[in-house]
Amino acid sequence: MLRLLLLCGALVCGADQAAPLAFTMLQRTRVFQGSSIFWGNASLDGRLSHLLEGFNVMQVLPLEPPDAWARRQKDVITYLQHFSELVKLFNKERPINYTQSLCCHLGCHLFPNGTVHSFYEVTLNGTAFLSFHVPNATWERHWPGGDAVATFAERELMKYPETTRDLQHFLNTTCVGILRAQSAWTGKQHSRSRTPLVLGLIVGSFALLGMAVGIFLYTGGSC
Q1: Which terminus of the chain has fewer Cβ atoms in its 10 Å neighbourhood, N or C?
Q2: What is the 8-class DSSP label of residue 160?
Q3: Do residues 93 and 87 lie in contact, with contact meaning Cβ atoms separated by under 8 Å?
């Protein structure tokens, strides 16, 4: 029994050591009768790092100095306000009396052997809608029905550097850089990491995605 316990303990320890560092973000948008509701969060290595509630964005972990975070926070609020105003405009032209729910899940993993994995997945009303193929900075459709909606959104997203090259850079470089700094901080360094967190860029990508979907849905598909 002692040998079995020691073996199990060794396996658990090995699993913990092999577990990757992760920085993940989850952002949800609900649109109903011209109103937009936002909420979400970000986690760094299992610890809550950011919170989004309505137009209020909070930095839970001190990943950025106060002055840098204040600028980032302002950018995020501006993006959300623009999206909210856009939804109101669409609703006046073509009202929709049912709820649309958009969810974006993205982030990166850094494995002990140095390899990385980044992802960006989007669901619409609880169904897989789009995903971002990081290596070649392209969007892929997953929508089972109403293919024209996903096609339009994909086409719109491919037009902007914010949702192609910039997003690829964030996921491959900035996001992974945050994890590498975190790994160095917990292993060799004793000073807090000051790696810039370009959260405003990502929420800007959310807004562009919502815009692409919203334009199609609120104009009845006349693209």
Answers
A1: N
A2: -
A3: no
Q: How many CA atoms lie within 13 A of 157 on its CB side?
A: 30
pLDDT in tens, 28-71: 888 888 888 889 899 998 899 998 899 888 889 887 788 888 88
- H runs (alpha helix) in 50-174: 66-93, 147-157, 165-169
Question: CB pairs under 8 A, 24+ apart, for 175-180?
Answer: 175/23, 175/107, 175/108, 175/118, 176/108, 176/110, 176/116, 176/118, 178/23, 178/44, 178/63, 179/21, 179/22, 179/23, 179/44, 179/45, 179/108, 179/109, 179/110, 179/116, 180/110
CATH T-level topology, domain 21-183: 3.30.500
Query: In sequence order, what are the residues at sequence separation of 6 or more whose Cβ sits closer than 8 angstroms to the Cβ of residue 69?
Result: 59
What's the predicted TM-score (pTM) here?
Answer: 0.78
Tokens of 25: 């973000």
Task: Give the position of tokens 């334009």.
Answer: 215
Contact 118, 169 (CB under 8 A): no
Domain ranges of the chain: 21-183
Q: Which residue has the tokens 């290595």?
A: 45
**Residue found by looking up tokens 């669409």 in the block:** 90
For residue 54, the 8-state DSSP code is T
